[in-house]
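Team,

Forwarding the record for the chain on the shared tracking sheet. I've put the sequence and predicted structure together so nobody has to dig through attachments.
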Amino acid sequence: MVLLKNGDESAEKPLLPLPKKVPKILVAGSHADNLGYQCGGWTIEWQGVSGNNLLQGTTILTAVKNTVDSETIVVYKENPDVEFVKSNGFSYAIVVVGEHPYAEMHGDSMNLTIPDPGYETITNVCGAIKCVVIIISGRPVVIEPYVGLIDALVAAWLPGSEGQGVADVLFGDYGFTGKLPRAWFKTVDQLPMNVGDPHYDPLFPFGFGLYTEPTKALYSA
């Protein structure tokens, strides 16, 4: 996993790691409670699956619930409207969106956007409260128009069946250390784009990745 954004110059402090003990958290997005989407293609079936019925594991939503304080309320709504987000007193939101599973030529795309209502969910939630957006995808996707709305951004790629690993770094049990294996484009018109190209001007360059420190020592001598 790669941490691409964690606050900006106007923020008092970075959003991540997230506090575990707050009154109420919103978890949103089509990929927050879907093991099939976490795993991608070549999982159970050639083109992958959707849902939680054919796979065993931990969704990101379940991992969040398992990680936060016992008194913290976790509310899940896949695609909330702005009024819902603003009126429920959430301390912050975790938005999990991304690509649907695919394999080989079935994943070919000329626009590299995520399916609806992914961008709508980002806009509704992150335009209203502090949010971290987790992108579930097998490759960089279009995100540049929304980066200004987002407080923290994570490229989780295809994390597989154990969403607990995502929660571990979100909440600071472990720190982020990952780096981009390829440049993340601003627009698809830039592609193909590689280091050294005359038009090399990525949103996030090859090798980019922010660090966070664990909130406490995991081991003692």
